[in-house]
Design a protein that fits this description.
Largest interface: A-B, 34 and 33 residues
Radius of gyration of chain A: 21 Å
Number of strands of chain A: 11
CATH topology of the largest domain in chain A: Pyruvate-ferredoxin Oxidoreductase, domain 3
Number of strands of chain B: 7
CATH class of chain B: Alpha Beta
Strand order of the largest sheet of chain A: 2-3-1-4-5-6
Number of helices of chain B: 8
Low-confidence stretches of chain A: none
Mean pLDDT of chain A: 86
CATH architecture of chain B: 3-Layer(aba) Sandwich
Shape of chain B: globular
Oligomer: heterodimer
Number of helices of chain A: 10
Order of helices and strands of chain A: EHEEEHEHEHHHHHEEHEEHE
Distance between the termini of chain B: 40 Å
Radius of gyration of chain B: 17 Å
CATH class of the largest domain in chain A: Alpha Beta
CATH superfamily of the largest domain in chain A: Pyruvate-ferredoxin oxidoreductase, PFOR, domain III
Number of domains of chain A: 2
CATH topology of chain B: Rossmann fold
Strand content of chain A: 15-25%
């Protein structure tokens, strides 16, 4: 029975790297593998998807209609994954990133699942750049047919060039991988419900007597044009919160704001609204 | 809590849209949305897009939208206008579709004074395919196919509105705007649409747009490049405006 795996997440999260490591590890364990990355028409900010198949027998075609293992790295990855769900598919997701309202859409179809708080582990214990390795740990624990040691070897081989430049990332990546494995051992489907996070709640509405300035993080791509167009430079990038692409969000010093609406006019996303009475 | 500042013509389902952060094209589309909203012609418009980055706008609006072969947007809207003269047709094309593969259609449409509106985005490269040399690339500008900068042997930057000025009728409306100037571009779009609504003649607006991703510049630099460098070669303003419009 060939293993059919589909991974999806935001472009830049390292999904392709993870899939490549799994493919390499499977080859090293003597399996037949197909690895098919699929990008959208977008250059950036799109959902990136990978199709992986691992089998003892030769594989005839790299695409498939239903998957055994589905992995969601982000909220937006849910809708492209939906049609690949099967009755007994295993659904792996990052429960520190995927939002509840997206999970609602597929809740009824999922029987087996595995939640890994990869973003949280990455942020607290390593860096956010190795979040994909935490997820890899989660996947590795479920791919019993591949020799465990081969995952580590494949990881080091894939990152060899980067490790040469920055030796410290070797331990970071391996540590994150093991953290993912530990997380699988801790996880118990009986006690842990299929839940994600509530949408981020932070201040988006600023006002003074005759003026209000509102931002919409679910649309802001962080291009920074609003900052440049502000005539009194009352806008700046905020350090704590980020928009939906993980880019910085503009914030306003409302006392200085004139209400000229230049930021609202220049925003290509329509993610700023200024109202003046 | 209020709604985001979308024009009422935008399709809320498809937002955030597919354009890169800081893209001038999406800014032009927002202003076009406002122009259609303010003229209250949402139910009469056919919006046609070309191949290239402009096709990312196929689900941008709550308008009748169609997408066609590369460079053939103008014949499509021309045919549509002939069959259904009451429709307001908008051809939304890039500099590749308008000045390279579709140049003959643009020229003939202007020569024949078709009652259509064409909006052309000039971002000085072929953006969707990764930033190759386009007819509008500036001399000395580096692209992936001219790594040492464009030279004269590869041709001079193509000035569309200036060319059309020579062949078009007096009732045509020709203008060049820039995406980062909201008020001016909105006026141009409204005039270009009004010229068609009045059944006067061919309307064409070229929009200078920044492309931070393929220019490999940050927000400030790409804004400067489009506002300072590009406007030296491509001066802004109306090249032809019927008296009744102005």
């Amino acid at each position: 029975m060939p293993r059919k795996i589909i991974l999806a997440g935001e472009g830049g999260q390292g999904i392709q790297t993870v899939a490549k490591i799994i493919a390499l590890a499977a080859i090293k364990s003597g399996k037949n593998v197909t690895f098919l990355p699929s990008f959208g028409v977008e250059q950036r900010g799109g959902v990136s998807i990978v199709f992986l198949q691992i089998s003892d027998k030769p594989i005839l075609y790299p695409r498939f209609a239903k998957a055994n293992i589905l992995v969601a790295f982000s909220s937006r990855a849910i809708s492209p994954l939906k049609k690949f769900l099967e009755e007994n598919s295993l659904f792996i997701y990052d429960n520190s990133v995927v939002e509840n309202k997206f999970l609602e859409k597929i809740k009824g179809q999922i029987k087996n699942y595995l939640a890994i708080p990869a973003q949280k582990i990455g942020r607290e214990r390593f860096t956010t750049k190795v979040v994909n390795m935490v997820m890899l740990g989660g996947m590795a624990a479920n791919l019993k047919e591949i020799n465990f040691q081969e995952f580590e070897n494949a990881l080091l081989e894939e990152l060899a060039e980067k490790i040469k430049e920055k030796p410290e990332i070797k331990d970071l990546n391996l540590g994150a991988f093991k953290a993912g494995l530990e997380e699988v051992e801790k996880f118990d489907q009986e006690t842990q419900p299929l839940e994600g996070v509530a949408p981020a709640s932070f201040k988006c509405f600023f006002e003074k007597e005759n003026l209000s300035w509102e931002r919409f993080p679910e649309y802001c791509k962080g291009c920074g044009l609003c900052l440049l167009k502000c005539p009194v430079k009352c806008l700046s990038f905020e350090k704590e919160n980020v928009g939906f692409l993980g880019m910085p969000l503009p914030t306003v010093e409302i006392e200085k704001c004139l209400g000229c609406k230049q930021c609202m006019e220049i925003c290509p996303e329509g993610a700023i609204r200024v109202e003046k009475q | 809590m209020s709604e985001p500042a979308f024009p009422s013509t935008w399709n809320k389902e498809s937002k955030p849209h597919k354009f890169c952060p800081g893209c001038g094209q999406s800014l032009a589309l927002k202003i076009l949305g406002v122009a259609i909203q303010e003229l209250k012609i949402q139910n009469e418009v056919l919006f046609a897009t070309d191949i290239g980055c402009s096709l990312l706008s196929w689900d941008m609006f709550n308008l009748e939208s169609v997408q066609t072969h590369h460079g053939r947007t103008i014949p499509l809207v021309r045919g549509f206008k002939l069959a259904r003269p009451e429709t307001i047709v908008i051809g939304f094309i890039g500099d590749g579709g308008g000045y390279a593969i579709g140049a003959q259609h643009l020229l003939n449409s202007a020569t024949g004074n078709d009652k259509i509106t064409v909006i052309l985005i000039n971002n000085a490269n072929y953006a969707m395919t990764g930033g190759q040399l386009a007819p509008t690339t500036l001399l000395g500008q580096k692209t992936t196919t001219t790594p040492l900068g464009r030279k004269i042997v590869q041709g001079h930057p193509f000035k569309g509105p200036e060319m059309l000025k020579e062949v078009s009728f007096e009732s045509a409306y020709l203008a060049r705007g820039i995406a980062s100037n909201y008020q001016e571009l909105l006026k141009m779009f409204k005039k270009a649409l009004q010229n068609q609504i009045d059944g006067r003649g061919f309307s064409f607006v070229e929009v200078l747009a920044m492309c931070p991703v393929n220019w490999h510049l940050d927000a400030q630099e790409s804004l400067d490049f489009s506002e300072k460098e590009m406007t030296k070669i491509y001066p802004l303003g109306e090249l032809k405006c019927p008296e009744k419009l102005s």
